[in-house]
Specification:
By secondary structure, the protein is mainly α. Helices cover about 60% and strands about 5% of the residues. The longest helix has 18 residues, at about 25-40.
Amino acid sequence: MKGRILTETHIAAFAVYLKGEEKSENTVEKYVRDVRAFWAYVGEAEITKETVISYKGKLLSENYAARSINSMLASINSLLSFLGWADLKVKSIKLQRQIYCPEEKELTKSEYMRLVNAAKQKGNERLNLLTQTICGTGIRVSELQYITVEAVKCGEAVVSLKGKTRSVFIVRELQKKLLRYAAEQKITTGAIFITRSGKPMSRTNIWREMKSLCEQAGVNPQKVFPHNLRHLFARTFYGIEKDIAKLADILGHSSINTTRIYIITTGNEHRQRMENMRLII
């Protein structure tokens, strides 16, 4: 039990291990960020099970969302396993499965259309098509690099990420729009969504550009980020197909439980369905 003191060397080795496990760059950054926050809490003191439990209590007292706390604890538990200190791992917080999502968090189809129109009005064709591409294919923002001229021409992008490979289909109307844009921008090969220097757009730049549309589109900024477009794709697809297994494959999810989070309806929709049951006489 002696000598369980966290150091910079431990954290650096942990980051190398995560990369060796083929975790994405964003995942590695997130795990390391969580671990560093824990390190700031424990300092040079020896880590015990009580220390980790105390840190869990601190997170709870600071009113973090339960899912956020569980995500942070997962990072710390992963580190402890890596260091051979698995006996110090703590349990995550038990969550009741969410049956509907808060109205103020999920992007509606009409809000999405207003964002697209705002991008058009601002003359930002790249942002207009980028928004439609994420929402029209369900890809992650980190996967936009696979939307290449070659992929668009054949109507299918092959995405290789997190040790998995899947095909993402590009519908004809989006194909035409993207190929026309590529021709106008003289992009003949490789990624379509690039900066002036020819590099793929970063998550930060995409986020900032999307936020710039909110006021003109009349959409709550808290709803506007790339992943919410992926959620809208999932809810729309499921509303038509009602096939959660197929949707999980399309989104690249390893677990259907993850997909369930994407397709929960809003409180208003849930309430309306209960009203339509007409069980109160």
